[in-house]
From TrEMBL:
Pfam families: Glyco_hydro_99 (PF16317)
InterPro entries: Glyco_Hydrolase_99
PANTHER family: ENDO-ALPHA-1,2-MANNOSIDASE, GLYCOPROTEIN ENDO-ALPHA-1,2-MANNOSIDASE
Entry similarity comment: Belongs to the glycosyl hydrolase 99 family.
Membrane-topology annotation of the record: Single-pass type II membrane protein
EC number: 3.2.1.130
Main location: Golgi
Group of enzyme by EC: hydrolase
Keywords carried by this UniProt record: Golgi apparatus, Hydrolase, Membrane, Signal-anchor, Transmembrane, Transmembrane helix
Region Disordered: start-end pairs: 39-71
Compositionally biased intervals (Basic and acidic residues): 40-54
Protein's recorded name: Glycoprotein endo-alpha-1,2-mannosidase
Catalytic activity reported: N-{alpha-Glc-(1->3)-alpha-Man-(1->2)-alpha-Man-(1->2)-alpha-Man-(1->3)-[alpha-Man-(1->2)-alpha-Man-(1->3)-[alpha-Man-(1->2)-alpha-Man-(1->6)]-alpha-Man-(1->6)]-beta-Man-(1->4)-beta-GlcNAc-(1->4)-beta-GlcNAc}-L-asparaginyl-[protein] + H2O = alpha-D-glucosyl-(1->3)-D-mannopyranose + N(4)-{alpha-D-Man-(1->2)-alpha-D-Man-(1->3)-[alpha-D-Man-(1->2)-alpha-D-Man-(1->3)-[alpha-D-Man-(1->2)-alpha-D-Man-(1->6)]-alpha-D-Man-(1->6)]-beta-D-Man-(1->4)-beta-D-GlaNAc-(1->4)-beta-D-GlcNAc}-L-asparaginyl-[protein] (N-glucan mannose isomer 8A1,2,3B1,2)
Length: 435
């Protein structure tokens, strides 16, 4: 009898456990987990509405699918070369995103000689078919703040194996003569760049009133606002410090004594050895600027202009001697290469500075000259400076009243592909130089 009661008790306990397990499973089997039914959209919205803001996340499976899709996309690209930088412009706008066309409607600039200026038109371009560019973008007259454009740009940059973009930057509420302020969409640019494992450096433009005092303020602003983002570019120096890198356009507009107050360790208001210390790269235009750059306390120099022979710095035969000067004075040397140059859509009188692309040969010659000088980095002028025809971004043939140049007989990706080839060569050469 006792044995029978024991068996009954065991059976009862087992039955209770079975009921409990079934209840838990049924409770856990919500619609989105079911193998046989799709989640009800209204239920899903209601569940999300019931959550606190910090609890709301993307559906895990959807996120996993997106992550897998992105990883699959990234695997198609060559690895990014973080020693290869491209100058990137965010000043373009269109009616859909900005309420009007910005920069695409660039005015034709007058020659400084009044007599010469009289012989050329000075009208404003009328997009979308008439752009302030000698080439027509494959993305059309886009807005720089369009997220889909940012995505397309990052994909093109990764196709080219470019690891860093140097974004043209003005302080908040400041702008160039033909545009609008652009600092407000740097956060989105950083996010999209990070998604594609691209880093972002800042190319500080000659904003109105730039001096050593507000340069400190603006560098502090950039580092405090963007410095913690994983896409923010930093570089390990020879001293072991990991610092941001800033390109300073038209640095010669400030005299070396002013720059020294910001960049020399000995100055009382120096940025050196503060949380805002950085690598500052000056623009070399004339030969005499070499000594000015040294006196000012800059960490290196770049040449920017894509026109071989336009300036002392952009003349390729000078790069070996510039590199020697940099080595002798512990400066970083960053020659700038470009696929060509033509700005007659906005400077119709400036044909003497045009450099034909020669189906990519001009670009390859420029890249070869840069490599010969054994640079620390190579900068590309540019990813998308359409006004000056230096872009490597994809362009397409366009038929309209405006006559546009194109990349034919090559395909729109030709300059991305050339860049990718030389990114690999540069990477290989760097490893040899370090051995």
């Amino acid at each position: 009898m006792a044995r029978f009661r024991r068996k009954s008790c065991i059976t009862l306990i087992a039955l209770v456990l079975l009921v409990f397990i079934i209840t838990v499973v049924l409770k856990a089997l919500t619609p989105e987990d079911s193998l046989f039914s799709l989640p009800d959209k209204n239920d899903e919205i209601q569940r999300e509405d019931d959550k606190k803001p910090e609890q709301i996340n993307m559906n895990d499976s959807a996120q996993s699918e997106k992550d897998a899709e992105l990883e699959s996309t990234l695997r198609k690209f060559p690895p990014p070369n973080y020693y290869l930088h491209a100058f990137y412009y965010t000043w373009y706008g269109n009616p859909k995103f900005d309420g009007r066309y910005i920069h695409w409607d660039h005015v034709q600039l007058p020659h400084w000689d009044f007599k010469v200026a009289q012989g050329y038109p000075q009208k404003r371009h009328v997009p979308p078919n008439d752009l302030g560019s000698n080439f027509y973008p494959s993305l059309g007259a886009y807005s720089s703040k369009d997220p889909s454009v940012m995505e397309a740009h990052m994909q093109q940059l990764r196709t080219a194996a470019i690891g860093v973009i140097a974004v043209s930057w003005y302080p908040p509420n400041m702008k160039d003569d033909n545009g609008d302020p652009t600092d407000d969409f740097v956060p989105l640019l950083l996010e999209v760049a990070h998604k594609y494992h691209i880093k972002v450096a800042f190319h500080i433009e000659p904003y109105k009133g730039r001096d050593e005092v507000n340069m400190f303020t603006n560098v502090k602003y950039i580092i405090e606002k963007y410095g913690e983002h994983p896409a923010f570019f930093r570089y390990r120096t020879n001293t072991g410090k990991v610092l941001p890198l800033f390109y300073v356009y038209d640095s010669y507009l400030m005299n070396s004594e002013q720059w020294a107050k910001l960049l020399k360790h000995t100055e009382s208001n120096s940025i050196r050895d503060t949380p805002y210390d950085a690598i500052f790269i000056a623009l070399l235009v004339e030969e005499k600027h070499k000594r000015d750059i040294l006196t000012a306390g800059f960490d290196g120099l770049y040449t920017y202009f894509a026109t071989n022979g336009f300036s002392y710095g952009s003349t390729q035969r000078n790069w070996d001697s510039i590199k020697a000067f940099c080595e002798d004075n512990s400066l970083i040397f960053i020659p700038s290469v470009g696929p060509g140059y033509i700005d007659t859509s906005i400077r119709p009188w400036n044909f003497q500075n045009t450099r034909n692309r020669i189906n990519g040969k001009y670009y390859e010659t420029s890249l070869s000259a840069a490599l010969q000088a054994k640079p620390d980095f190579i900068s590309i002028t540019s990813f998308n400076e359409w006004h000056e025809g230096t872009q490597i971004e994809m362009a397409i043939p366009k038929t309209s009243q405006t006559v546009y140049l194109d990349y034919l007989p090559n395909k729109p990706e030709i300059y991305l592909e050339i860049t990718r080839k030389w990114a690999a060569i540069f990477g290989g050469e760097r490893r040899k130089w370090q051995d």
